[in-house]
Amino acid sequence: MMKRLVGILFVLAAILLTVDASPAGRGQEYPFAPGQKIVIDLKMGGSVTITGGDKSVALVSITTGGGQDATEALAIRPIGGGLEISSDKTTEEEKWNNLKVSLQVPRMCDVQFNSMGGGLKLVDLRGTFNGKTMGGALTLEKVQGQVKLTTM
Question: The pTM is what?
Fold first, then answer.
């Protein structure tokens, strides 16, 4: 009986570990083919990390600095040839302070980025990368292509 219980617990643990491997345990998938474009427009600011991979989807995770889900703070919608993540909010509501947006996308994609503040980190991507942040670090790791990014 004890061996069976241990076996069941082991199987349940394995299932829980594989159900959602997104950052902070959250994320939504959107269809996204290699070569498409991510458009990010954050009027409220926030840090963004975009990591390239082999899947033909965009996995989007949005959290607060405290790790709470903040998906409702931003609009995420498919656009012709890609995906747009935006906010018209310029609120200083404390619950939306320090937003963290994490995306996992196909390695080959273009990025258009505008933010009122917060860093941008691009990892393992190939494409064209344009945009600006009103304050924050720009970090590029294993990025190939045309880059025109500025921070104020």
Answer: 0.78
